[in-house]
Amino acid sequence: MAVVKKNNKNNSRRGLELNSMIAKKNALVIQNEKEFDRVVKKVEMLMNKGSMHISEEEFAEIRRLSLAAQEYENNKYTIDPPKTLEGIIEWIMYQQRLKQKDMASALGISDTKLSMVMCGKQKPDVVLLKSLHEKYGVNAEILLSVV
């Protein structure tokens, strides 16, 4: 996603790649929803035992099944990047767990100005676009294309 900071994106991507490699190494590849549902039920059954009542082998099985399920979900359910400035800002706020007033402060603009931009009542200025690019790593070309 071109919206989050590069470090977060790279770390997140590395984590997904690592999980993908582990899942492939353990050779469980979920092919369809029926298999996915079976894997989820197996994980739930093992988890319901409680952490004090599972063996190391069961813990390893939970991890193996969970990674396979995660790999399946990552491949099957993709989220398209936001296509509007408002969507980009909302995505950043979601990723960073920011309220609108905190986002405005981080961008160096007033709450009112951010609210007006988010509602489409005011066009973003260079300060806002530059802050999104510098502070959150939003690609400048993307910002210019959505303004």
| Helix amount | over 70%
How far apart lie the N and C ends? Answer: 18 Å
Number of helices: 8
Strand content: under 5%
Total domain units: 2
Q: What is the overall pLDDT average?
A: 85
Q: What letter string, H or E per element, gives the SSE order?
A: HHHHHHHH
Instruction: Tell me how many strands there are.
Output: 0
Low-pLDDT residue intervals, each spanning 5 or more residues: 1-10
Principal-axes geometry comes out as elongated
Cα-based radius of gyration, to the nearest Å = 21 Å
Alpha-beta classification: mainly alpha
The biggest beta sheet reads: none
Please name the defining characteristics of this protein:
147 residues, mainly alpha, 434 Repressor (Amino-terminal Domain), 8 helices, disordered N terminus
